[in-house]
Amino acid sequence: MKQHNRKSIRLKGYDYTQVGRYFVTIVTRGRLHLFGNIVDGKMKLNAFGKIAANELAHTLKLRDNVSLGAFMIMPDHVHFVIHIDQQPVQKEYTAEEFERRAGAVAGKHINKPGSLGAIVRGYKGAVTRQVLDKINEKSDPPDNQLAEIHKVLKNAKTIWVRNYNDAIIKSQRHYDNVTKYINDNPKKWDEQLKAKLKLE
Predict the structure, then answer these.
(1) CA distances to 121, 166, 190 from 163, in Å
(2) How many degrees, rounded to 5, is the angle at CA 23 between CA 19 and CA 27?
(3) What is the percentage of the chain residues whose pLDDT exceeds 90?
(4) Is residue 13 included in any domain, yes or no?
(5) What is the pLDDT of residues 145-180, one digit of tens each?
(6) Does residue 3 lie within any of the structural domains?
(7) Angle formed by the axes of helices 116-135 and 47-62, to 10°?
(8) Of the candidates 37, 59, 177, 197, which lies 20 to 30 Å from 100 by C-alpha distance?
(9) What is the rounded distance in angstroms from the CA atom of residue 162 to the CA atom of residue 26?
(10) Cα separation of 18 and 148, whole Å?
(11) 70 pLDDT exceeds 50?
(12) Is 10 within a domain?
């Protein structure tokens, strides 16, 4: 039986449970404009966007060693800065336990409890469940704008692309630049869209 190895895009050898600040980007499947629209340089969240925003706040309640920096829910992606303020104590696993926990990937890419990967995985899963539950309700879409989204995701199992992008923030200057980038994202999106429309 052919084994498919999933390639990790994390920094090799880096412990993502350690204290630090991390810039994370998660993208919707097919770049679907799932969470709302940019109006006059500001993000206007729809029902699904509010789920994505509320779940970020809920993440903090679930983990007392984590805090949140700048964040922005965009139409087709989410940006946030997560602070791991205290490194969680890790359980030591035997080789057999690693194998059992890892399943198909044979223990190669395990998300340790409290790691950045575990936090992102939990967030993605929680948002997916709530969005798909709302989509699969028998009621009509909340508004006409969401009708196409309901159609595309009606039989979906996830709303996200696999994996996520991250950057380890190593200096205050980097942190400030990332914060500005996140906060300016809706305005930049709006400017790019208007420029595109002029060209057309």
Answers:
(1) 9, 10, 27
(2) 135
(3) 50
(4) no
(5) 667 777 778 778 889 998 899 999 999 999 999 999
(6) no
(7) 140
(8) 59
(9) 9
(10) 42
(11) yes
(12) no
Tokens of 157: 């199992």
Residues 2 and 153 sit within 8 Å (Cβ to Cβ): no
CATH number at residue 107: 3.30.70.1290
- Start-to-end CA distance of the chain, whole Å, equals 51
Do 51 and 131 contact (CB within 8 A), yes or no? Answer: yes
By DSSP bridging, strand 20-27 and strand 165-169 are antiparallel
Domains contained in the chain, number: 1
- Please tell me the predicted confidence (pLDDT) of residue 135: 84
DSSP assignment of 21-86: EEEEEEEBGGG---SEEEETTEEEE-HHHHHHHHHHHHHHHH-TTEEEEEEEE-SSEEEEEEEE-S
Mean pLDDT throughout 29-43?
Answer: 92
Mean pLDDT of the chain: 82
- Nearest CA to 78 out of 105, 99, 57, 61 is that of 57
**Residue 11: inside a domain, yes or no?**
no
The structure tokens listed for 174 are 């980097």
Place of tokens 């602070």: 83
Selection from 124, 160, 189, 193 nearest residue 34 by Cα: 160
Is the pLDDT at 137 greater than 90? The verdict is no
> Contact at 8 Å (CB) between 77 and 25?
yes
